[in-house]
């Protein structure tokens, strides 16, 4: 629909955030004779109703007049609940156009989104990446705050507006923002090494090997070990060995962060997201929800890493809410007003102590926990969620002499080269990049026999067998094996020791 006008009426194109996308909204303004008034209709949240006062003040400070007429503003379609502050600008533009105070040329080719301050300044709103995508799809010019940052991947004409007073010149005079181009290439992720590098993690070469495998195949991994073993250090350095985001992944991650009101700077540099919520997080905070419905931490980790430190300390209902997203790579939230779909293709990294005191199995410190307490504590790490985590590793306390001497093993650069090499081999081997592994076709004879014996001894269920096969295929890719060997499957099954249901 295009903007339409006749004497005393005008329609402006706008949009609102619904889930992880922007949906069109049409701001219809009618100025008729009668008792002067200013009313908003169209199934509005209180925050939208407040726009009336912001618009009234912004018009006054910008040198315009609110028509002494009966002004009615309808936000269509009325069946959708409207929320957010982005309707301030289109409402003001509609009132000014309907009352003949600004030029109307080319207004029908624009999508207006922005909050107004009381003095008429146009302020940024969350979700501008979503608005840019919608404008691109509809062939419109996005008119929004001058605070907006440009980015690659979206071919959207944009006009910036710092104050409502500039609308006297019309939209044809509005220029686009300076574009901060998103970078790409290995150097972007390598920049993280200035602060974080795996060479700083001493005496954990087996754990580094496991993390290389996890990063290559995007496998979930759980680390269990005593306090001070280096679990958090290992997890926080994981983004330094991941490939930089490609353009499509960048746009997806930018969209989610923009909708959630998060800064885009690191994603624009090509860095995969890294989210580490505290264990006190609510279910809605992790998977999404609230009013309005916003993405949770699992969606903010889309195309990146979700790190759950002290896993047993998270509420049980919060952890169990991860089960479906781990399988489907998306989360569907159902509310009275409809469904909201958020992507959440993330790599899960979890860390935990082996018992409440943290010293079970630690040769240097005796465990003071009663057996029943230990069993209850470890049960919180097990069950259906643990079965959906591909790899489980035990982290031992590093040798104190090596820590003091400052010895180092594999660096992030070396680990990243292995990850990139393994992923490249997998792409050539399977251009479709299917995650399903056919054991009959992908395993050699000795590997199949060994896998059958191990699966029987560990009483592995169907899900565990499939996940062990995927890990084995990833190990073979790192070693550039066309077929999975016996050594590959033995190593893969060693990572299923804590979860083989």
Written overview of the protein:
The protein folds into three domains: 5-173, 2-Layer Sandwich (Ribosomal Protein S5, domain 2), CATH 3.30.230.10; 187-429, Rossmann fold, CATH 3.40.50; 432-501, no CATH class. It has helices at residues 46-49, 51-61, 88-98, 128-138, 186-190, 205-217, 231-236, 247-259, 265-268, 283-287, 297-300, 316-320, 323-328, 371-379, 383-387, 400-405, 412-429, 439-442, 445-457, 462-478, 486-494, and strands spanning 5-6, 9-18, 21-32, 37-41, 70-76, 110-112, 115-116, 122-123, 141-145, 158-161, 221-224, 274-275, 305-308, 330-335, 338-343, 347-352, 391-394. 36% of the residues lie in helices and 17% in strands. A five-stranded mixed beta sheet has the order 1-2-3-5-4. A hairpin with a 5-residue loop joins strand 7 (115-116) and strand 8. 46% of the residues are buried. With 501 residues, it is of the alpha/beta class.
Brief synopsis:
36% of the residues lie in helices and 17% in strands. It is of the alpha/beta class. It folds into 3 domains: 5-173, Ribosomal Protein S5, domain 2, CATH 3.30.230.10; 187-429, 3-Layer(aba) Sandwich (Rossmann fold); 432-501, no CATH class.
The biggest sheet amounts to: 5 strands, mixed
Q: Give the class from helix and strand content and strand pairing.
A: alpha/beta
Q: Helix share of residues? A: 25-40%
Strand order of the largest sheet: 1-2-3-5-4
Annotated CATH architecture of the largest domain: 3-Layer(aba) Sandwich
User: Domains counted in the coordinates: how many?
Assistant: 3
CATH class of the largest domain: Alpha Beta
Which fold name corresponds to the CATH topology of the largest domain? Answer: Rossmann fold
Shape: elongated
- Continuous helix count: 21
- Runs in which pLDDT lies below 50 for 5 or more consecutive residues are 1-5, 178-193
CATH superfamily of the largest domain: P-loop containing nucleotide triphosphate hydrolases
**Distance between termini?**
55 Å
- State mean pLDDT (0 to 100 scale): 89
Please compute the radius of gyration using only Cα atoms.
Answer: 28 Å
